[in-house]
Design brief:
The complex is a heterodimer. Chain A is mostly beta strands. Chain A is about 0% helix and about 55% strand. Chain A has no helices and twelve strands. In chain A, a hairpin with a 4-residue loop joins strand 8 and strand 9. Chain A starts with a strand and ends with a strand. Chain B is mainly β. In chain B, the strands form two sheets. In chain B, strands 2, 4, 5, 6, 9, 10 and 11 form a seven-stranded mixed beta sheet that branches. Chain B has a four-stranded antiparallel beta sheet with strand order 1-3-8-7, with no helix packed on it. Chain B is globular. Chain B starts with a strand and ends with a strand. Classes of the chains: A mainly beta, B mainly beta. Chains A and B meet through strand 5, strand 6, strand 10 and strand 11 of A and strand 4, strand 5, strand 9 and strand 10 of B.
Chain lengths: ~110, ~110
């Protein structure tokens, strides 16, 4: 079974600085997607960024970018110029295209300090 | 695009009662998913539909749980004879197809007393 591991239960960053959240996964599949979702205190899960495994180029969405290392099965999220509104629980998720389900990590609680 | 909606947002029930939750997906999305999330954990997959067909169920979905998606539009998740261990946030998500990302609703928080 696929597993997703987020080894940092909590992280904190100063406003305007950069923070990197780690994620590793285990799979024997070659065709899959990886996602980062954000869940603010209101608890609605919001998609932050997506990476297709077949793409070598790392995905970027404004201040959010990923470092996708396929051989190492690593998928980290970098948040640049952190803002107070970035404070949330961040989940890394794996999805294989032959299946249906998202498999989530345990989450990383990000605190942004003013 | 009004997003995924779920009702009710909160439900408190006594152990042994039946509860039903509703999810309305984004209108053009043919896939609908149910997940369960307990405090401090990531969501866990329960089941999914493609149109009106329920194609996969997790082992987490005991025989007290049933889900339907009549006519491939909204979906309902029913829990019979609720137990305290059923207390959780129940999340619904939808996607346009298997190649597209899943969009989540706000969830229904169930508390079983």
């Amino acid at each position: 079974a696929q597993t997703v591991t987020q080894s940092q239960p909590e992280m904190s960053v100063q406003e305007a600085e950069t923070v990197t959240l780690s994620c590793t996964y285990d799979t024997s599949e070659s065709d899959y997607y990886l996602f980062w979702y954000k869940q603010p205190p209101s608890r609605q899960m919001i998609l932050v960024i997506r990476q297709e495994a077949y793409k070598q180029q790392n995905a970027t969405e404004n201040r959010f970018s990923v470092n996708f290392q396929k051989a190492a099965k690593s998928f980290s999220l970098k948040i640049s110029d952190s803002q107070l509104g970035d404070a949330a629980m961040y989940f890394c998720a794996y999805y294989e295209t032959s299946g249906s389900r998202l498999t989530f990590g345990e989450g990383t609680q990000l605190t942004v300090n003013p | 695009d009004t997003g995924v909606s779920q009702n009710p947002r909160h439900k408190i029930t006594k152990r042994g009662q039946n509860v039903t939750f509703r999810c309305d997906p984004i209108s053009e999305h043919n896939r609908l998913y149910w997940y369960r999330q307990t405090l401090g954990q990531g969501p866990e997959f329960l089941t999914y539909f493609q149109n009106e067909a329920q194609l996969e169920k997790s082992r987490l979905l005991s025989d007290r749980f049933s889900a339907e998606r009549p006519k491939g539009s909204f979906s309902t998740l029913e829990i019979q004879r609720t137990e305290q261990g059923d207390s959780a946030m129940y999340l619904c998500a939808s996607s346009q197809s298997r190649y597209y990302e899943q969009y989540f609703g706000p969830g229904t928080r169930l508390t079983v007393t």
